Amino acid sequence: MNVTPSESPEPSPPGLIESVRAVSSAPEPDRAGQRWGFGAFLLVEAVFILSAVFITAVGRINGASLSSSVSLVLIGSIVPSVLAAAVAVVITKVRGNGPVIDLRLQWTREDVATGLKLGILGLFLTYVAATIWAKAVGEENATSAVGELVTQASLPVSAAVVMFLYVCFIGPVCEEIIYRGLLWGAVERQGWNRWAAFGMTTVIFAISHLEPLRTTLLIVIAIPIGIARLITRRLGASIVAHVMNNFLPGLTLLLVTIGVIPA
């Protein structure tokens, strides 16, 4: 009589805590061929800041202001981020192996799942942290810079939709390329481990928003996003987590702007 051997069950995928623990013993990624470092990040940050200042100055010369010009709000919000991220990608092509290798700009199905889980966790943490923070600083100071600009400019529906797409999708992709792509890669190139990269990118991400009152809140928001990058070692998971984290605030901003819900 033939006996069919019992099949051994497939191992279940590791949980979040196990994945974080595994990072400590995993080898650092190879960065052979990468000829850029912190200087590249500083250049990209300079492009972001100077382009924002230039756009604002040109708008004011032509009589526009952030409180009255829809075009200035859209261009001043979107162009600096997109331009800075584009420069980061170009740097990796000219001075390295390209964005897929140097910035880890890739993802798998597992990365998407991880990003979704951490994005949901991030929404919860953001809600709790934002509630505590608003009570600490006062409701009148609790609006983000983008939210304040959108409210002041009284955007029409078409512009509000563009801003929603920027806050929820374009902005997260650009910021991940700059911080958990370029800056993270610069840290690892120095021979520091990915925990150092996680800590540094989380803090600099928060500070670089140039909103001193919100820096602590932004650090809390950035933690789940950074963990997604830490666990998977790829940018795809952190992009998904960032998109998830921005979606509800972006949707709320859109609904307030078009008058569906009160401000």
List keywords for this structure.
263 residues, mainly alpha, 10 helices, 0% strand, membrane, protease
Query: Helix fraction?
Result: over 70%
Mean pLDDT: 85
Number of helices: 10
Structural class: mainly alpha
Distance between the termini: 76 Å
Main sheet specs: none
Shape: globular
Calculate Rg over CA atoms: 21 Å
Low-confidence sequence ranges: none
In short:
The protein has 263 residues and is an all-alpha fold. It is built from ten helices and no strands.
How would you sum up this structure, described in words?
The protein is mainly alpha-helical and 263 residues long. It has a domain at 100-257. Helix content is 72%, strand content 0%. It has ten helices and no strands. The longest helix is centred in the middle third of the chain and has 33 residues, at 157-189. The model has no long low-confidence stretch (mean pLDDT 85). Residues 160-248 form the CAAX prenyl protease 2/Lysostaphin resistance protein A-like domain. The chain crosses the membrane at residues 36-58, 70-91, 112-133, 153-171, 192-210, 216-232, 239-261. One of its GO terms (biological process) is CAAX-box protein maturation. Keywords: Hydrolase, Membrane, Metalloprotease, Protease, Transmembrane, Transmembrane helix.
